[in-house]
Amino acid sequence: MAEEGADAQDGSGGGGGGGGVDVHVVSMLDEVAWLTNLRGSDVPNTPTVLAYAVVTTDTAVLYVSVDKVGDAVAAALKSEGVEIRPYEAVLEDVAAAAAARKRVWLDPASTSVAVFDAACGKVAGATDGPNEARVVLKPTPISLFKAVKNEAELEGMRAAHVESFRAAQAGFLFPSFETISGVGPNGAVIHYSATKARSTTTVTTAEMYLLDSGGQYVDGTTDVTRTCHFGSPTRHERACFTRVLQGHIALSRMVFPSGTTGQMLDSFARRPLWEVGLDYGHGTGHGVGAGLNVHEGPQAISWRPGAGKAALHAGMIVSNEPGYYQEGEGGFGIRIENLVEVVEVDTKHRFKEGPHLGFKELTLVPLDRGLVLTEMLSAEEVAWVDAYHGRVRAEVGPALAPDDRVAYEWLRVNTEPLVPIA
Known about the structure:
alpha+beta; disordered N terminus; 422 residues; Creatine Amidinohydrolase; Creatine Amidinohydrolase, Chain A, domain 1; 11 helices; elongated
């Protein structure tokens, strides 16, 4: 397992090989959840359980509070060869592996000092000398395996995005992160949260409004941002929104060869802003788990050093969220965020072996058409917006029409073509 995992990680631009490793300690909660197919509610906004997993070439042990595991779950895990041990026993067992001179694989990005010390034999009662030379510090291969979703996970994510219009519906668990809701200059604070230190503001018809929200559903995870104006936006506000939209469309329409990294794509979303000297200070996209963390790696679309270095593969899910933030008096924030699935694309030619890739929208929420300066868009960009809105109406509309005619009418009006058909 260690050799296979290391090879997979090498292929994604990760660390070197882990051949000959005896024990793999899994510390990241979403990786433990993915590995065991278990979900829980120990961590806010994320359906994970406080647990460790330790995997060898022929055994797997889940370390978790035993009272959290019901009989049916315990039986299912046992049938798959997974042993359950108390959460607190992980340090003792890792220390025992060190005492037995086992090679232990740890992920440096997620391993605690306590687990590292146990793997090195630096614990009370250790008698056989330090094991530090036998500890392998390499990124876990599980992150890449988890990032490439299987068809069942993708179907769940698609279903969650069609039905995720309210929390009161069946299958909703809890928000996937703390909602970001900013009016006017508060919207320019990228992760704004109303507190006593930051005065709350009422939504009015005079200022821009940015809403970034998401949910954890039985089927999957959502994360969507929309920027709206409920009055008459200035031409500057509309021009800024339109440039952000152009960057969003440019990334959405990208077709790129297999092996392309997120760093290579980031600038395409920024170009319309760069042309007039504007920019945004965050990455363009982050990976998203399927019923797991709303932020996951290794996939990302970002210029930042250390981010966006993993090659994108079909089945990965990332966000597409360029923005612009004008601070100070009269300030506002703009962000347009969809989650997208990396898919294979048929191309007329193929320069090298391997498929070309592109993106398909998972998020199905109308854009504020009143903020778009249509004259700034090319014919292809107008066609993209109209096609996207047509898909929103076709796929979300049936879920609204039987029970909520008011919501369906709102959807119908807000998915009309940008340029009326003569």
